[in-house]
Amino acid sequence: MAESSRDSILRRIRESLEKPAPQPAAPDFTAPLHPAPADDLAVMFAQSFVRTGGVFYYCESEDHFFDQLFTYKKEKSLENLFVWEPELKKLLHKAGLVFVGDEKDFIKKADASLTTCEALVARTGSVLVSGASASGRRLSIYPDQHLVLARMSQIVPDIGEGLQAVKDNHAGKLPSMISLTTGPSRTADIEKTLVLGAHGPRSIVLFLLDDAPAATT
């Protein structure tokens, strides 16, 4: 049986995560940028995201996302998953997944959050979020673990195209807060000792939902 394009992308993502991604060569800033083919962007993003310390899950469908999120919550013993965006709430209600939908005891119990994002940057493995969503400025920064639900159609090659995607999402205007998250928060300011979670989440987890249209025969 011939392998479908979707199966090919999933296989290549899995294969790329089984071995360490090669370190990129020093960039040539004089060379023009040529976007990678669309079916390579998911692989490029997965490699870059994992290399910077992110935890990556590929989701073939919404049901697959529900299963993986349920398993992750159970494995990490997450009792307080804060979700403030109406569409995400509706999605999790549909699956019967437990979450905290208001701000009650947020400061005391913010174990984890689940948000959407504006775009995913393939070359750097970065997640672009803004304060324009119902998650606001805090939900992607304050909790110990930041979980993100994104779609394959949101992947762009470079940061410039990511910022353009943000403008396109908001009628040509940039939100008052934009954050480019590349891996978990880390610092080595104190005695050169690397510390995770000093200025933001200790871990960032991305669930990439395949929203490519099904192939027709």
Automatic annotation (TrEMBL):
It comes from the Bacteria. Residues 108-208 form the LUD domain. Pfam families: LUD_dom. Gene3D superfamilies: NagB/RpiA/CoA transferase-like. This is LUD domain-containing protein.
